[in-house]
Design a protein that fits this description.
The chain has about 350 residues and is an alpha/beta fold. The protein contains 14 helices and twelve strands. It is globular, with a radius of gyration of 20 Å. The two termini are about 25 Å apart.
Length: about 350
């Protein structure tokens, strides 16, 4: 919920180029309301949810118009927009399973004059899948190498990996656990900052091994893939159930960073030779150092080394998924999400 990333992308049959990119902060009041709604869902009324849906749609529309202006591209030359939406709830384990992304796509389509594809996750869930992660199909299209097993690691609020095996073996992938979500929440609580810049605060602390082992012993980490999660599970309330009262805040931060690094490293298969990092966590220098320390026999770099800036991989992925929807081609990988079959993802809102 740190903002809106938008990318203008030109796709070929087997290649792509990024024409323009832009990142917009959410209005401060919108971000505040989003956090309140998602972290305290029992206090969010239907009226508030409806207004957030509209407000995010308006914000996405404004970001799109700014992107077109920056790229000097007319709306009429853009085939479609892929809008992931803002996740406010993801409950694949509920009695009546659901995932909820808001941001009214009709507003985006009407305001830009461009056909808009949204609601990518529900079709996969309807087929028994987790609805996440969805980027692996794009990773497979762009980053796969015939002779080398590669891992694409996205570190957003939650971390997820895509395992791209050599040869013709199936692609796999899943959420590994917390990425930035606990780090950001703890930093905001104790430092007043939205995030720990480059991991510098965590780097000054000492890992508490007892706390780390307590956190890693959560049964979620031992759960077999396919699996996905969110801040509904990994949050400060979850942390509080394991947290000693006498531990310094800086040492907690160091331990939370180590939790992210270890849980990711434990998920990377021994056969992988290369790990390419994208998402906001790619800027956390200390996290990448710790990750490399836990994966000493593997190359750990960002996706920029294979041609795509790590800040824009997710935005480009949903542009690609929109293209798949327009062309009536599947966008999920059942071996990743657990869906019963491949499916065309997304609902089309005509301009």
């Amino acid at each position: 919920m740190d903002g809106i990333d938008a990318a203008l992308v030109r796709f070929g049959e087997n290649d792509m180029s990024v024409v323009a990119t832009t990142s917009h902060d959410y209005p401060a009041e919108l971000r505040k309301k989003l956090f309140a709604a998602s972290r305290n869902p029992d206090s969010c009324t239907l009226d508030e949810l409806g207004e957030l849906d509209t407000w995010i749609g308006e914000s996405f529309c404004a970001a799109t118009l700014a992107l077109l202006q920056q790229g000097k591209v007319a709306a009429s030359s853009v085939r479609a927009i892929g809008s992931h939406g803002q996740t406010v709830r993801h409950r694949p384990d509920a009695a009546h399973r659901f995932t909820l992304q808001i941001g009214d796509a009709a507003i985006i389509a009407a305001g830009t004059g461009i056909d808009t594809v949204a609601d990518f996750r529900s079709a996969d869930m309807a087929l028994g899948g987790e609805g996440a992660p969805l980027a692996p199909a794009f990773h497979n299209w762009l980053f796969r190498a015939d002779a080398t097993t590669r891992v694409v690691l996205n570190i957003g609020g939650i971390a997820n990996i895509t395992i791209l095996p050599s040869g013709d073996k199936p692609v796999t992938g899943f959420d590994t656990g917390p990425g930035n979500t606990l780090l950001d929440a703890w930093t905001e609580k104790h430092q007043g900052d939205a995030f720990d810049n480059e991991g510098s605060w965590a780097a000054g602390g000492t890992v508490n091994k007892a706390l780390l082992q307590s956190l890693l012993s959560d049964r979620w980490f031992a759960k077999a893939a396919p699996k996905s999660t969110g801040f509904e599970f990994f949050n400060l309330d979850w942390l509080a159930t394991n947290l000693p009262s006498d531990l310094a805040a800086i040492d907690v931060q160091a331990t939370l960073l180590e939790l992210t690094a270890v849980s990711i490293a434990n998920s990377v298969p021994p056969t992988a030779a290369e790990v390419f990092v994208c998402g906001g966590g790619a800027h956390n220098t200390y996290l990448l150092q710790r990750l490399s320390a836990h994966l000493p026999d593997k190359s750990v770099t960002t996706t920029s080394t294979v041609g795509l800036d790590p800040d824009w991989v997710e935005a480009v992925a949903f542009a690609w998924l929109a293209m798949r929807r327009i062309n009536a081609k599947p966008g999920n990988i059942p071996s990743v999400t657990g869906a019963s079959r491949p499916a065309v993802l997304g609902a089309l809102y005509n301009a």
